[in-house]
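A reminder from the course coordinator: this example appears on the midterm review sheet, so study it carefully.

Given structure:
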């Protein structure tokens, strides 16, 4: 079992030899972290969570109850995964056709600050840009732009949200202001970017960014 001096793990949690767990993590009842999984600092894994070999979680990732993260899933810092979110890693599974290992698993990549609502399903092979927001019960089948709000089955874009999670209403010049942070955003050619970052609620020192993003 890994050194547990820097984090908390409930007595029922299973931590395989070879997993890497950052300081300040909290791992709750009946959760299994496989060898080869990597958790950044201050992550929280709720009850009955499974983290497969090769999964990478950045700093301050919050995983609620009953979520399984399969090989190929990568999350940057400050990602939120609601209860019973479903990931996949094979597009065409068949019980009688072996499709295991690196040649078959497709990656799913979540950028910094992404939020996934409860009971949503993410079909593998997609990327979600930073601070994208997926409404509860959605089925996401394609890439999602940064700051985009999507929901439905299949999920479709319904608007834009700030890093603080507020709807953005753009004026005639393509500018919008978050009502909580007062940060400004710009909409250009169908993409949103933050133009006055300031001190975001989600900003942390020593942030983690995977090379695949």
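Designed residues:
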């Amino acid at each position: 079992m890994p050194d547990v001096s820097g984090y908390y793990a409930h007595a029922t949690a299973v931590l395989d030899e070879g997993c890497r767990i950052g300081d300040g993590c909290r791992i709750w009842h009946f959760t299994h972290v496989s060898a080869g999984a990597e958790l950044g600092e201050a992550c929280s894994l709720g009850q009955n969570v499974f983290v497969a070999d090769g999964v990478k979680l950045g700093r301050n990732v919050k995983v609620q109850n009953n979520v399984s993260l399969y090989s190929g899933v990568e999350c940057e810092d400050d990602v939120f995964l609601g209860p019973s979110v479903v990931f996949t890693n094979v597009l065409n599974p068949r019980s009688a056709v072996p499709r295991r290992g690196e040649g078959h698993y497709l990656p799913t990549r979540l950028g910094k600050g992404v939020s996934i609502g409860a009971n949503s399903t993410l079909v593998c092979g997609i990327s979600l840009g930073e601070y994208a927001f997926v409404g509860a019960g959605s089925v996401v089948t394609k890439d999602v732009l940064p700051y985009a709000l999507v929901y439905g089955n299949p999920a479709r874009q319904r608007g834009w949200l700030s890093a603080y999670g507020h709807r953005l209403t753009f004026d005639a010049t393509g500018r919008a202001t978050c009502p909580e942070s007062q940060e400004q955003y710009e909409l250009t050619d169908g993409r949103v970017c933050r133009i006055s970052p300031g001190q975001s609620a989600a900003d942390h020192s020593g942030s983690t960014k995977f090379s695949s993003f």
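The longest strand covers residues 156-160. The two ends are 31 Å apart (CA to CA).
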